[in-house]
Amino acid sequence: MGAFRAVLKLSELPAGRMRAVSIDGRELLLCHTREGIFALDNLCTHAEARLCEGRLRGTRLLCPLHGGAFDVRDGRVLAGPAQQPLARYAVRIAQADIEVAL
Ligand code: FES
Predict the structure, then answer these.
(1) Residue-level pLDDT at 1
(2) C-alpha 25 – ligand 1 centre gap (Å)
(3) Where are the beta strands (DSSP E) in 2-85?
(4) pTM of the prediction?
C-alpha cells in the first residue's frame, strides 16, 4: 500500500453522496455512507461503465449500464451481471481532508 494522499475536502462529499476523483491517472470513486467513507475503482468490472454515473443506496452501489450492484464496504458483487469485485482502497480522514492510499 502506498502513502496516504489527500484527494478531496471532506466538506465536498456530503453523506449519501459519491464523487469521482483522479489519482496517478486512476479514477477512483469516493462514497460517503452512514458506515463511513469508502474508495473503490470508478470503472465497473463488467463493461467499464463509470460508476459515478450510477446510484448509491446505503452501502449498495448500482451500475448505470446493466444494473450490476456492489457493496462499497468491501467491493463484493451483490448483483450481476458483474462477477468480479471492485478494487477497494484504504481511506482515512486527516484534518478536513479525505485521504486515500493506493
Ligand atoms: S457495465 Fe456495470 S453491470 Fe455492466
Answers:
(1) 78
(2) 22
(3) 5-9, 18-23, 26-33, 36-41, 55-57, 60-62, 69-71, 77-79
(4) 0.95
HSE at residue 67, side-chain half, CA atoms within 13 A, is 0
- String of DSSP letters for 10-33: GGGS-TT-EEEEEETTEEEEEEEE
Ligand 1 centroid to 64 CA: how many Å? 7
**What are the pLDDT digits (tens) for 37-83?**
999 999 999 998 999 999 999 999 999 999 999 999 999 999 999 99
Query: What pLDDT, on a 0 to 100 scale, did the predictor assign at position 2?
Result: 85
Ligand 1 pocket member 51 (CB < 6 A): no
Report which protein residue has its CA nearest ligand 1's atom 1.
47
| Residue of 44, 51, 55, 78 to test ligand 1 pocket, by largest number of atoms within 8 Å of CB | 44
- Which residue reads 494522499 in cell numbers? 5
Give the integer Cα–Cα distance in Å for 14 and 78.
Answer: 24
